[in-house]
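Practice problem: predict the structure.
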Amino acid sequence: MSTLNITLGFDDNFWAPAFAVMRSACLTSARRHDLVFHLCEYRVSAEHRQLLDKIAGEFGATVNHIALEEHAAFNAVRERLPVARRLHPVIYARMLLPSVLPGLERVLYLDCDTMVVKPVERLIETDMAGKAIAAVPDAARLIIAGGKEMREKRDLFDLSRSYFNSGVLLIDLNRFAAADLPGKLKALIADGTMERLYYDQDILNLIFADDWHELDWRFNVIDPRPPHETLGPHIVHYTGERRPWHLLAGLTRSVAFARAYRHVMTNEVFYRFLRERWKRWWLKLLRLR
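Answer:
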């Protein structure tokens, strides 16, 4: 496989973590020139896109920008599906990848709160055992798939079976397209099931329950803490409240690779992102007064 295709989905609030994901993949890969980043962006500023393009200049990788706000299929989904206040409709972009990335056969989807620690080509070229998706089981399966009192979703998910986290997905795009996600989404909305689901992750687990291959947990180490650093993770996934881009993360050692993350993001981008977040916080605070 000559090309290593990676896709990320984000809006303008997450451009810097996306930059860190891309740079971590480049830094730890022996095949940087083969990396192609397909960025599914929602209203990302031209200035931030230029900063993301620096990845190509530094490593020789390819950066492909995709403006989701101009994509009809995404807009149709965005208007119909629920989104929590802390999330953004861009989380649903991964379900539309066959139409967003026509012509590709295999792609690795990475959430923007991940960091690649070992060569990403080991994952992209792994045997998928003929399945549509390869992923890592979610440690929070009982809570997410079980729902309140482990009762409300018992008719949808069997807790004796595994359930994957959707933050790191290796996808066979032909098999993925054959599942007809847009059609299934319409059915889930029509019968009211969508109101009971945990966003895109539940949807994907429901549709691909029998069509996914289980990966080693090191390919998606969820909510990583410093002790995980010694266990040889390939990709860490910062799902908890502790984020490596928080100012004191490196000093408190509250998350794995926190000090390394700042330098992967680079100090220039880290502090620019910090200033932007503070500005948004103050503007939000002033509007509330």
